[in-house]
Amino acid sequence: MIDETFHLTPLDVRRYEFRRAMRGYEQAQVDEFRQQVADELERLTRVNQDLEAKARGFNEQLRAFRERDKALNDALISAQQLRAEIREQAEREAQLILREARAEAERLQEAMRNEIQSLRDQVAAIERTRRSYLAQLRLLVERQLADIEAAEAATPRAPAAAAAETDEDHSGPPNSRTVASPTPTWLDSLMKE
Q1: Average pLDDT over residues 68-82
Q2: What's the number of domains the chain is made of?
Q3: Residue 188: inside a domain, yes or no?
Q4: 36 burial class (0-12, 13-18, 19+ CB within 10 angstroms)?
């Protein structure tokens, strides 16, 4: 059975001394073989050390790659979550902006409706004032005409005297002439309204 703790090094092979026996192996061949075994052990040890160093390097690289892979996966998951959160936040903000815009539009529409109603009320009040003014003016003009007609009816004149007065009126300045029409045309237009 082979002892697992037994390690043979090239130095062990070179220093190992065989006992001499009468009918043993040829010493030069054994020494040469020992030298070849020692050289091969040295080479194999170096190769083994190189391979172990490479394996450690590869293991280290593998560990680093796994860490990078994990970090990349974590970053990808974080980016996806962040994208989803940003999208949700943008949608919430868009909904909020839409609600605010609709509320502002409704407020402006209500303000415009109130302004229109106020303007309609003002127009109606102005129209009432205009009608009232025209009615009062018509009443005043009618009273004045009634007073003029009453005054004319109360003092009858002879046609010759009236003609003489008309001639006298022509002798005065042109602006002082009396108008023959009992109601001026502007009063007629007001009365029609």
Answers
A1: 93
A2: 1
A3: no
A4: exposed
